[in-house]
Amino acid sequence: MMDSEFEQRLEPGEPETLHGISGSPGIVVGKVVVFSRQEDGLLRYRLEPGAAENEEARFMAAVARAEQVLISLRQQFEDDLADTVAIVDSHIRMVRDRLLLDQTLSLIRQKQINAEWALTRTLGIIKKKFDHIADDYIRSRFADVEYVARLIAEQLNGQGRSFPAGFAEPVIVAGEDFSPEDTIRMHTDKVLGFLTEKGGSTSHTAIVARSLGLPAVVGVRGVTSRCRTGDTVIVDGYEGRICLHPTLDQQRLYLEYDRQHRVFSDEMSWYIRLASETVDGLRVRLSANIEIPDVEAVIYYGASGIGLFRSEFGYLQGSRLPDEESLFTVYRDMAAALAPEPVTIRTLDIGGDKLSSRLPELRLSRERNPALGLRSIRFSLRERSLFETQVRALLRASLHGRLRILLPLISSLSELREARAVIESVMEQLAAEGVPFNPNTELGIMIEVPSAVVMADSLAAEADFFSIGTNDLIQYSLAIDRGNEYVASMYDPLHPAVLRMISQTIEAGHRQGIEVSLCGEMAGDVFTAPVLLGLGLDELSMRPSAIPHVKRLLRHSTFARLTVLAAKVLKCKDSSEAAALLNQYLSENYPDQFIDRDERT
Ligand code: PEP
Ligand code: MG
Question: In DSSP terms, which residues pair with 403 in a beta bridge?
Answer without folding.
Answer: 343
